From TrEMBL:
UniProt-listed SUPFAM superfamilies: alpha/beta-Hydrolases
Organism: Anaeromyces robustus
GO molecular function: hydrolase activity
Alphabetic keyword roster: Hydrolase
Name used for this protein in its record: Alpha/beta-hydrolase
Amino acid sequence: MEANKIKGPAKCVTLPNGDVITYAERGEQNKEIMFTGALYHHTFMPVVEELAKRFHVYAFIMRTHGVVEEINTDGSIHWANQWGKDLYDFANYLGIKKFHYLGKCHGTMPGWWLIKNHPEMLYDFCSFFLGPHTLPQNSNVWMEASQNGKMQELLKMSIRNIESGLKKKQEELKCLGPNLEDTKALMKYMGFPEILWDNDIETMEYALKTTNVPIGYLFGSEDPLFNDFYDSNMKLPFITKKCHFTILQGERHLMELDCPDRIADEAFFFISQAHKNYA
């Protein structure tokens, strides 16, 4: 169990295929079920706690080792497919046939896997701070800062309240420990939903235009990743069937460090509207 990747009580299950899933369970008193995934749940846990005021939330760890089934032709692991399959198997193991899904940035990838492979399992999908890319990238501010090791600069671009945000990030890194895996090899699977369609943009666009799953997009206007893919992101409401599309002025990529309750409130509003019969 990777309990160090979760702030607070953690659980784990071993699935029939041998996969070990670590997760936090919150809001057990609620009837409606929501899943949310991430590489770790520390600074994002306040969002989970807010969501748990209305939903029974399973916050699972998107693992980076262990039993794998999704293999590329070159023998490498297709982690985007694996994370989606993990969610599918985990939900079925728990006997949960349908649920809400919320993902933020890389945490959206299991949700996009379900959109492609098992949309029948989703009541709706909150795809926050990441959407499929259908147009060329506008800039590369985020990745350049990340790859050049400019972490202080990256955090300053990502948080409004720098002092408290840095403290929370430092506490998170301390809990995760010195053996935290290098995510560089995972990067192409973490932020590019189109990889689930083998980068076949036409087929992916058709899926967006015809899906019956309500999808809610949320972005911050000052998020470098939003602006790095500005054209693609602004195209989303025109190619996603009956989607909900929100840009919050002034918010940045690590919004969970500044106002976790606002992320949850945006999810609550989207979900409350998603199943009303608007024309």
